[in-house]
Predict the structure of Cysteine desulfurase.
Amino acid sequence: FTPQELKNIRDQFPILNQSVNQCPLIYFDNAATTQKPQAVIERLIAFYQTDNANIHRSVHTLGQRSTDQYETARQTLSQFIGSQDDSQIIFTSGTTAAINFLARGFAEPKLTKGDQILTTALEHHSNLVPWQELCQRTGAHLVYLPLTENTMTVDFVLLNKMDTTNVKFIVIQHVSNVLGIEQPIKQLTDWAHQRKIAIIVDGAQAVPHLSINVEEMGVDAYCFSGHKLYGPTGIGVCYLKSEHHQSTQAVNFGGEMINQVNDFDSNYKNAPWKFEAGTPPIAEAIALAQAVTYLKAMGLHKVFHQEYVLSNRLYQGLKSIEGVQLYHPLYQSNFHGIISFNLDNIHPHDAATAYDYEGIALRAGHHCAQPLMRYLKVPATLRASLAFYNTVEEVDSMLEITRAVKEFFTNALK
Ligand code: PMP
């Protein structure tokens, strides 16, 4: 972006223009949640000011308007991820809800004792705990996929030697929320489908940083959260290929998802509505579509390029500071905005507090990825995660403050 373009962008994010602890806020916690542009905030307000009504139930004008906007939002999200059929887009409250739905509704009916589910040691707890629970209910087993040391992506050499007789599902993230690593989803999908294995992908950290085409990748299911994509909290998307709609069971039952309710049984609407019982997050879905429209208008390639430039600058800068440990594998060329690191002899929580004194919002902890922390042999890391509205100046400030934080703790320890 040109300096003027970046200024215009930052003007669209009012929250960025504030001081924290008497310093200008540097918001580097975008992998946890992103800030919302004015267009999204205004869309929420406008909906409640002029159109608010429940959907799919009313013949009155407001009800029709809200229904139209909600279904148009579905269409916008469908096009955004390259889905060829809007019915493949199921609105959920977020990635976690989407994965729990897939575990119960899509996977559970197809699993029996002794079946296997493949996953990786990189998964966010949201894409691990539901599968652990599912295994306990069904007697299926989780099997961790081999990763290559240099890239920490799936090792196809070892994969091709695996006995896959009992494997029914692969559940895997697209981009890691700790290391920013991208898994080769298309290649993995081809491998899986040759063996009649279904693949479910956690795209929470991918959708904000990559152009997604679910049909080209060929995945069976793909999930993400609106709040990490500059939209509101409480809304997410579960893409589920239409060929699986019949065999997938609803997990929530109630209003909106039914066709006919008899005294002792009922029958249900077609997908996606049979999977959306009750009043959905209407305003949130509409505002998420607004976020997508906003991003597309800016040019996704420009958004991604800015993130690429900033995260490389931060990575190289941190690498040049003595006593900074970076956790990224050797052959990583794109961080998707995410840099994980530690400062020697300083607990990440203490460091994060020191950064906060200087106005920098960083995340410290296990990042909901405890198996990965064990793999990396660290209890926790610091994580800086960048978005397109961040600036080179902010990156350079963080590098300067990193030196100061190190010095402060070194002197304090003397
Ligand atoms: N998967 C990944 C890779 C994530 O980064 C996150 C959010 N940190 C989730 C799943 C869960 O998303 P949510 O909390 O929005 O349901």
Notes: The pocket of 4'-deoxy-4'-aminopyridoxal-5'-phosphate is lined by residues 94-96, 124, 126-127, 173, 177, 202, 204-205, 225, 368 (CB under 6 Å). The radius of gyration is 22 Å. The chain has 13 helices and 17 strands. The CA atoms of residues 45 and 283 lie 9 Å apart.
